[in-house]
Specification:
Belongs to the peptidase S28 family. By secondary structure, this protein is an alpha/beta fold. The protein has 15 helices and 9 strands. Bound molecules: 2-acetamido-2-deoxy-beta-D-glucopyranose (NAG) (2 copies). One 2-acetamido-2-deoxy-beta-D-glucopyranose (NAG) binds next to helix 6.
């Protein structure tokens, strides 16, 4: 709709671990046949608030505005095995062998050819790719592996380094909860820590029914698996709040810390932090359609093993598979810096790979090492890839945040969370975010200029 025929550039929005919504852009479903969050294994509750918001990002984000400015042909390509790009029996474990980032990149190459044919494109059309989170990594890797197909790439909050035990995630969550620039405080972090210690203590004392009643659980957390499921659910509220701070999630870090450090209520000194966590979980539960908090481990496993295609939004099974085979990314809490419960172990997370897919836990380190050697980890030696990260975002730990070469290839936004730059400008945006978008625009404009010059020079040589 913005495209200047026949020579205008092509802006490719790379799909990630979720469906692409196909309104405003020319969406191409991956062959055979916005993004969700990479939060844990795609938890249900905090996510509901995200899906719509993130979908908006696909449709009218910063890249759409840039496409308008540069009169670009705008494309969005859904990742195979997500959204509508799944074969009818595609989620069966034996079929998941075709689900990988490498296959997704190969799909992009085929889409490049297909689009080039259908729109009569030539080497005069300069391709630029965009993506955020996992799809940001794909955007960077597409440029790295197929440099002749895409001239430049923007990779927002892209965890390009695979890591089995991603304990840094929760360490950054802790630091962000202390960060006064975004409404955190030392006290807030201390209260959260204390609250989790108290919940653990209550479980150790065997006060199962009280804990179940306090947090509105559907089941009584008697067995250790359900107990860690409860802890995961509680931690997810806080992890999600930090990762998507001020990006359309239910509450911000500032508001969360307001609840956790509230002194207005009657002081029941001992259990104060516990009660504040109860309050926080109530705020979340009141917005969910479910009557109670599901903490059944058995049900989690059953859902992950379910191969039916009930809804195109399904992503947990597929994304969990990719964590087992390629990335790890397990947000554990065994490190003392983690503010939540030590019940969130690497062992529990990797056990799911074996239970759900029959993938041996011992095979994981080698798989992750392969991913890093194949793509280059956080030292990818890519040229004309711009890595954008936010200081509050835990995923920055696995991205590229320092320029290794003379050519600037990173943008760091101090006070923003995950993929903030991808949204269209809002009145409430921090100055640093506006400045970052401007920098991205400058890079893209420069790439298009140099591409045009190179083409002129080549033509000159031919004449
Ligand atoms: C591509 O070129 C062919 C032949 O010149 C023409 O018939 C067709 O309409 C063109 N397609 C587009 C999308 O411009
Ligand atoms: C468990 O319940 C008992 C009885 O209500 C109470 O005295 C005790 O403090 C509780 N333990 C914890 C750790 O909350």
């Amino acid at each position: 709709m913005y495209w200047q025929r026949p020579d205008g550039p092509v802006f490719l929005f790379v799909g990630g671990e979720g469906p692409i919504y196909d309104f405003d852009v020319l969406a191409v479903a991956a062959f055979f046949a916005l993004q969700y969050s990479m939060l844990h294994r795609g938890r249900k509750k905090p996510l509901q608030h995200l899906v719509r918001h993130l979908a908006e990002r696909t449709l009218n984000g910063h890249h759409v505005d840039m496409a308008k400015d540069h009169r670009a042909l705008l494309l969005a390509v859904e990742h195979r095995f997500y959204g509508d790009s799944i074969n009818p029996d595609g989620l069966k474990t034996e079929n998941l062998a075709d689900l990988s980032s490498q296959q997704a990149l190969a799909d992009l190459a085929v889409v490049h050819q297909y689009i080039s044919q259908s729109f009569n494109l030539s080497c005069r059309n300069t391709w630029i790719s965009f993506g955020g989170s996992y799809s940001g990594s794909l955007s960077a890797w597409f440029r790295g592996k197929f440099p002749s197909l895409v001239y430049g790439a923007v990779a927002s909050s892209a965890p390009v380094k695979a890591k089995l035990d991603f304990s840094e995630y929760n360490n950054v969550v802790g630091l962000s909860l202390m960060n006064e620039a975004v409404g955190g405080s030392e006290k807030c972090l201390a209260k959260i820590r204390e609250a989790f210690v108290l919940v653990e203590a209550a479980l150790i004392d065997g006060n199962f029914t009280k804990v179940a009643a306090d947090f509105g659980c559907c089941q009584t957390p008697r067995n250790p698996d359900d107990q860690s499921e409860l802890m995961q659910n509680l931690a997810d509220i806080i992890m999600g709040t930090v990762q998507y701070n001020e990006e359309g999630v239910l509450i911000s870090i500032k508001e969360l810390c307001g609840v956790m450090t509230d002194e207005s209520e009657e002081k029941e000194a001992e259990m104060e932090a516990y009660n504040h966590l109860v309050k926080l979980s109530q705020i979340y539960r009141s917005t969910s359609q479910e009557q109670c908090l599901d903490i059944s481990y058995e049900k989690t496993v059953k859902d992950l093993m379910d191969t039916s295609l009930k809804t195109r939004k399904r992503a947990e099974r597929q994304w969990t598979y990719q964590t087992c085979t390629e990335f790890g990314f397990y947000q554990t809490c065994e490190d003392t810096a983690c503010p939540f419960s030590g019940m969130l172990t690497l062992q529990a997370q990797t056990k799911l790979c074996a239970t759900v897919f029959g993938i041996s836990q011992h095979s994981l380190p080698a798989r992750i090492a392969f991913t890093n050697s194949y793509y280059g980890g956080d030292n990818p030696h890519t040229h004309r890839v711009l890595y954008v990260n936010g200081g509050v975002d835990p995923w920055k730990e696995l991205s590229v945040v320092q320029d290794s070469s003379e050519e600037a290839q990173t943008v760091f936004i101090k006070d923003t969370a995950h993929c903030a730059d991808m949204s269209r400008e809002r009145l409430t945006d921090h100055h640093s975010l506006r400045k970052a978008r401007q920098e991205i625009e400058n890079h893209v404009a420069r790439w298009l200029r140099t591409a045009a010059q190179e083409k002129m020079n080549n033509r000159g040589e031919l004449l």
